[in-house]
Amino acid sequence: MTTTQTTEQTPDDETAHTSALETARRQLDNAATHVDLDRGIIERLKHPSRVVEVSIPLERDDGEVEVFTGYRAQHDDVRGPYKGGLRYHPDVTAEECIGLSMWMTWKCAVMDLPFGGGKGGVVVNPKNLSVDEKERLTRRFAEEIRDEVGAKQDIPAPDMGTDAKTMAWFMDAYSMQQGETVPGVVTASRRS
């Protein structure tokens, strides 16, 4: 005897499978119905200025080399440099970074801050890294995206799986490439 079980998809199930990018675009379309804004501007805001994908080789503590993928999405810089979190999580995707960078653009605009939206991350479980491995990964990621970031260009901040120490490593690695200390390349929370 074969039993067939059907399950209905609830609105909560639909939300769980909707990406940050799809949600951000839907929210933008909804907000656009309440303002008199050129449709071309709305369409432009559905897309990032750029998304950078890099490979980050990391020598693990045991001597093995593992390559991780990193992203930096830069949504819009009309109001000022891109700004937004840098996360370390196994589920990071380019699409997620784009959606989150869109939200950062809007948060800065609503608060009248002179920044645009950015978001980045590395596909890694930070709990599986030693402190030394996390430092090496961060420094290499900073080297890989150094042409995309800067105090007047794009300013990473701590996010999921990162903290003030991570931002200090990032700033130090970036500064070494620049030949001078550049504290404005990151922001950091006092919470770790």
The helical percent reads 25-40%
CATH architecture: 3-Layer(aba) Sandwich
CATH 4th-level superfamily: Leucine Dehydrogenase, chain A, domain 1
N-C termini distance = 56 Å
**CATH class categorisation:** Alpha Beta
What's the number of extended β-strand segments?
Answer: 5
Unreliably modeled segments? 1-15
Biggest sheet: strands, sense, closure?
A: 5 strands, mixed
**CATH T-level topology:** Rossmann fold
What sequence of helices (H) and strands (E) makes up the elements?
HHHEEEHEHEH
Q: What portion of the residues fall into strands of 2 or more residues?
A: 15-25%
Work out the radius of gyration: 19 Å
Class by SSE composition: alpha/beta
Strand order of the largest sheet: 1-2-4-3-5
Dominant shape: globular
Number of domains: 1
Report the average pLDDT across residues: 90
In words, what does this structure look like?
This protein has helices spanning 11-16, 20-32, 39-45, 94-110, 131-144, 164-178, and strands at residues 50-59, 65-76, 82-89, 116-123, 154-158. With 192 residues, it is α/β, with parallel strands linked by helices. It has a single domain (48-185), classed as Rossmann fold. Strands 1-2-4-3-5 form a five-stranded mixed sheet.
